[in-house]
Amino acid sequence: MLTNPVTNMLKKERQAYILHQVSLHNSVLSADLSNSINVSEDTIRRDLNELAETGKVIKVHGGALSKSFNSFYLRSDVYNVDNKKIIAEKAASLIKDGMFVLTGGGTTIIEMARLLPEDLKATFLTGSIPAAYEYSQHPNIEVIFIGDKIAKKSQIAVGGEAITRIRHIKADLCFLGINALDTEHGITDNDWDVVQVKKAMVETSAKTVVMSISEKLNSYQRLRICGVDEIDVLITELDPSDKLLDPFRLNSLTIL
Amino acid sequence: MLTNPVTNMLKKERQAYILHQVSLHNSVLSADLSNSINVSEDTIRRDLNELAETGKVIKVHGGALSKSFNSFYLRSDVYNVDNKKIIAEKAASLIKDGMFVLTGGGTTIIEMARLLPEDLKATFLTGSIPAAYEYSQHPNIEVIFIGDKIAKKSQIAVGGEAITRIRHIKADLCFLGINALDTEHGITDNDWDVVQVKKAMVETSAKTVVMSISEKLNSYQRLRICGVDEIDVLITELDPSDKLLDPFRLNSLTIL
DNA sequence: TTAAAAACTGCAAATTGTTGCAATATTTAT
DNA sequence: ATAAATATTGCAACAATTTGCAGTTTTTAA
After folding, report:
1. What are the CA-CA distances from residue A108 to residues A80, A129, A236, A244, B160 (Å)?
2. Domain containing A57 — which CATH number?
3. Are both B180 and B209 inside the same structural domain?
4. Which bases in strand C are touched by protein, i.e. have an atom under 7 Å from a CB?
5. Is residue A21 part of a domain?
6. Quick check: A65 and B13 CB within 8 A?
7. Is the CB of B85 under 7 A from strand D?
8. Assigned domain for A6 exists
9. Which residue from A32, A63, A69, A177 could staple onto A108, CB 3.0 to 4.6 Å apart?
10. From the CA of B146, how many Å to the nearest CA of chain A?
11. Global pTM?
12. Backbone region of residue B104 per phi and psi (left: phi > 0; alpha: psi in -120 to 50; beta: other values)
């Protein structure tokens, strides 16, 4: 952060200026401030210490952070849960009585499982331990677990056996929680085994529904699961008309 | 996760960014973070270590995992926990490195799973959702889930597919939590599907270990799993010399 | 098993912090 | 107003932190 040098400030003025900069950028570097106000870094440091002592900023090595900064990142957990619930509700509305539904794991899927209507009668097939657990709590849902070796990170079954069995299933719908999606690379992930399983799921299902919070859009990872053209429905927490979704408006893709 | 590079971050900012990415994607790779923030992998590793030390993420080889993702299954108040723990400890002592262990579900099995030593390297095969979850929390244990339709009451996979696969396994040990046992009727249960699965497990294993709180001894139910002569080890919370166990002192049966 | 990837270790360079001190500037008391 | 007291500021020497690198060990995957 570099601005025009300012001179001859009183201490209070200077500190007010610093506070302003912090609230503007969420963080400041001592070196930059020293440059823009033309005082020594010692002075800046002393200012920052005072502001930190009175709780106005958070002092860190090399500068200071805005106080709201911390809560911004900390709340992301909760805030994502809310978004995931929005997604989950849209997703749940796609499932009709009698359907065969193939799903992966992931927190969004879990949220969806919890939101399934009590009276829904359908068959869910999954290789995810937490998802299977959630499905099995529902009174009218049949759960088929697709077993194999359990990948510890993701808590889902992976391996040839699982993939073979997935390919023998002709599901009506496939719900996929994903890690990254963009128009160029399609759905991508970074776990080889998981990618194999998800690939099989997409290929064997009549329709593929992708659930993703909007933050995961326009990022990509190393391994490709499938292209955007193989997705039938994209669900985010955003309104379907949102600008962020413009790149995904294709003939083959429904946005919810 | 690959996004546009960001530069000149304060350490805290960087760590907040990492946390955000972890909560977003459930997992991060050190290499990817190093790319997107333009710092060396060493720095990322040090950050991840710090975040792991303060319990914000779970560090794994190559990156880190979200902490919130794990732990869906809460131990509801288990009947007779203390006795079950005694049983579980005895049972755990039977398992040696390299073994293939086939287990059912049930609260006693879950307790055993929690008591397995950290350094035990073995392969566990099960059709129980809670058991598979517990096994998968251990660092050195391979978990194979034997999938099929999930029986809701017992949260285990039942059906022809599961049975066929169980019969193809030649396990060293089979651990069974049971509902009823007496010398006349052997192991008995009252759920048809579950009985089929347990039968297959007993028949395909080199040794069968039965875990039961003493209350369940000398009672029986409608459906027979196997006779007492097919059991190799009987574990209860009692001292092996206890009078209650006298009826079970046979040549073929070890009492622990 | 072996080979590659990742982690750890110690280390050096750069940056940032701390402290004491002297030079100024500002305030206070008379 | 003026001197004394007090605050502020910059500087220099030294301490601490952070970061990247090279060499080694450990872990992982084939």
Report:
1. 9, 14, 10, 20, 31
2. 1.10.10.10
3. yes
4. 5-10, 15-20
5. yes
6. yes
7. no
8. no
9. A177
10. 5
11. 0.79
12. beta
